[in-house]
Amino acid sequence: MYKISSKNFKGKWAFVLAAAISVSSFVMADPRKESLVVVTASGPNSMDIHRSGTNRPSYQVAVNMYDRLVSFGIKGSGDQLKYDSNVIKPELAASWKLVDDGLAYEFMLRKDATFWDGSPVTADDVKWSFDRAVSLGGFPSVQMKAGGMTKPEQFVVVDKHTFKVVMERASKLTLPDLAVPVPIIINSKVAKANATDKDPWATEYLHKNPAGGGAYMLENWTPGQQLIYKRFDNWKSGKLPQMKRVVVREVPSASTRRALVERGDADVSLDLPNKDAKELAAKGKLTVSGTSIDNTIHAVGLNVDFGPFKNKKVRQAIAYAMPYQKIFDAAAYGRGEPMWGGTPGDVSATWPQPFPYDTNIEKAKALLIEAGYPDGFSVPISINLGFAQWTEPTAILMQESLAKIGIKTSINKIPGASWRTKALVEKGLELHLKNFGGWLNYPDYYFFWAYIKGHLFNSMNYDNAEVKSLVDVTLPMAVDNAQYEPNVKRMISLAMDDVPLIPLWQPTLEVAMQPGVSGYVNWFHRQLDIRSFTKE
Amino acid sequence: MKNWFRHTIYIFSENPVSIFAVILFLLYVTMALVGHWLVPYDPYLTNTDIALQPPSVSHWFGTDHLGRDVFSRVVIATRMDLGIAFSAVALSALVGCTLGSLAGYFGGWADQIIGRFTDIVMAFPLFVLAMGLVAAMGNTVENIIYATALINIPFYIRVSRSEVSVRRNLPYVQAALQSGNSHFRALAMHIFPNTLPPLMVQLSLNSGWAILNAAGLSFIGLGVKPPEAEWGIMVAEGANYMISGEWWLVLFPGLVLMMAVFCFNLLGDSLRDIVDPLRRT
Amino acid sequence: MKNKLRLIGQRLLLAVPVIFGVVVISFLLTRALPGDPAVYFAGDMADEQSIQQTREKLGLDKSLPLQFMAYFNRLLEGDLGVSLSTGQSVLFELKSRLPASLELTLIGLGLALIIAVPLGILAAINPNSWIDHLCRILVTAGVSMPIFFTGLFLVFIFYYLLQVAPAPIGRLDFLFLPPPHVTGFYLIDAALANDWALFKAALHQLMLPAITLGIFALAPIARMTRGAMLVSLGSEYVKAATANGLPRKKVILIYAFKNAALPLLTTLGMVFSFLLGANVLVEKVFAWPGIGSFAIEALVASDYAAVQGFVLTMAMLFIFINLLIDMVYTLIDPRVGN
Question: DSSP class of residue B187?
Answer without folding.
Answer: I
